[in-house]
Amino acid sequence: MASSGRGRVDQAVPLVSSTRLDSLTDRLTASGSTTREITAPATGEPLGTIPESTPKDVAEAVSTAREVQAGWADVPVGTRAQLIEQFADRVLDRREEFLDVLQAETGKSRQTALEELLDIQSTCEYVAANGPATIAEESRSPAIRWLSTATVTYEPVGVVGVISPWNYPLNLAMVDAIPALLAGNAVVLKPDEKTPYGALLLAELLEAAGLPEGLFQVVAGDGETVGGALIDHVGYVSFTGGTETGRKVAERAGRNLIDCSLELGGNNPLIVLDDADIEQAARGAVGACFPNMGQLCLSAERLYVEKSVYEAFVEAFISETEKLTLGVEHSFNSDLGSLIDEAQLTTVAAHVDDACTRGATVRTGGRARPDVGPYCYEPTILTDVASDSRVACEETFGPVVSVTPVDSEAEAIERANDSPYGLNASVWTGETARGERVARQIECGTVCVNDGFAVGWSATDAPMGGVGESGIGRRHGPEGIRRYTEPRTIAVSRVGPLGLPDRLPTSWVMAGFVGVTRLRRRMKRAIRSVRE
Ligand code: NAD
């Protein structure tokens, strides 16, 4: 068995000082006596202690946010967009501190941390440039042309609750919070228990950029208690996390009759067709499967390769994977960092063991690397994986993938669709038209051709989200902005109240209505047939 993920063990000690981390906690709305110790995944050592919010704190945070929001909604949308741009500039200026905090609380590589930070820039740029037009009021077809009007305005929902996960704690919070703010809402963010510090730093910079104090708040603590309380008070909830939690969030949002978006898990397929450039597909598959140690909702875990190119692809994929470096250092030298914690490491190892018990072959990787970091695991490629193995059926959310040969394009599509999830898929081919044709048959929110996920995710004007157990709702694009608004229709009659003329017998008027309706429909059909 070959080993992948060359280890580096340089400088794992967090660069950010505990005094600085402690000072960030002043921004939390948390009055309770309960605290939570935060661990640095790179070392397994304590990083700091966070006071936890109580349900009463959550109610207070939302109430303050609501008061501030009223004034924010009156700020011209162009000014709101400018402040968002200023926030993006500040994040870029303070990138070293962000990278230190992000690495300290997630254990990810510095490269992955920087990508996350740059993604915040893309979100801010897109939302600031396109948000104002997206929520500008618009005229719609009126009830009676010339005699009435219909105008739609997009009103903020009020306070938006954002519940975010630990894997990309900064950009997954901001991709939901920034459009909500642009649309005139306040935001209360509940970050994952493991990663509160980056969220607090974001709050600091939003305020420094000129957003009113109290408009963006952070509450911290247990998901059920604090996250649940948040859903009880806000007007909309954006949730990113696991599918089972998503169900609970949807149930609670439903009880409160508020709308929500759920960005959930995936077990994403990657298809290599027989006409693909194998070297390019192998390099691309590494980028599709292993970023952030596979702890990425969009990353590929199930690879299906047409038989005629299977062996060549597997060899090239192994060779590219073995070039990856694994480390917990603070430079850009390591490609991969640590898993988030012991529980994630246990899941990853259990999935590999389960696959092996059912006959899988470990082609590279397959080992924990405590010599690098307590929760490090090698990027792992499995073949001969039974279709009922956990890696085939469940989301591993780690650096483990299976590669399976298929007889045909049709079988690849069938296997790709054989999952309750439907978040992201990718298709590799020498002919993009073929790739697009296959893509249209895959049941996922996003399908990328000749790229793993970046070409889809980075298209910030295009909606992103899942079907089936991968969630409901979309982020990015106009869809990701308008979800934070309540459309209001203002309809005006220029001729007084619409109704029956009182001087004529009702039966005549009714006959007239039927006649006019019939005439209108006939005319429409005639016009359509002339045009065709
Ligand atoms: P999780 O569902 O356990 O936690 C996510 C967030 O929800 C945390 O902030 C947590 O505190 C909170 N939470 C937990 N229980 C809650 C409850 N009952 N009510 C309200 N909030 C609650 O997530 P996880 O399993 O640690 O995160 C990884 C999962 O997130 C993976 O399945 C991954 O695929 C998914 N994810 C999806 C996307 C996406 O965009 N689709 C992005 C990143 C991660």
Return the structural class.
alpha/beta
* Separation of the first and last Cα atoms: 66 Å
Unreliably modeled segments: none
Strand order of the largest sheet: 14-15-16-12-11-17-18
Strand residue percentage: 15-25%
The molecules bound to the chains, other than polymers, are: nicotinamide-adenine-dinucleotide
> Major beta sheet, specifics?
7 strands, mixed
Helix content: 40-55%
Number of strands: 20
Mean pLDDT across every amino acid position: 95
Estimated radius of gyration: 26 Å
Shape: globular
Number of helices: 18
Protein model, in words:
With 532 residues, the protein is of the alpha/beta class. The chain is 43% helix and 19% strand. The protein contains 18 helices and 20 strands. The structure holds nicotinamide-adenine-dinucleotide (NAD).
What would the keywords be for this entry?
532 residues, 18 helices, alpha/beta, 6-stranded mixed beta sheet, 7-stranded mixed beta sheet, binds nicotinamide-adenine-dinucleotide, 43% helix, single chain, globular
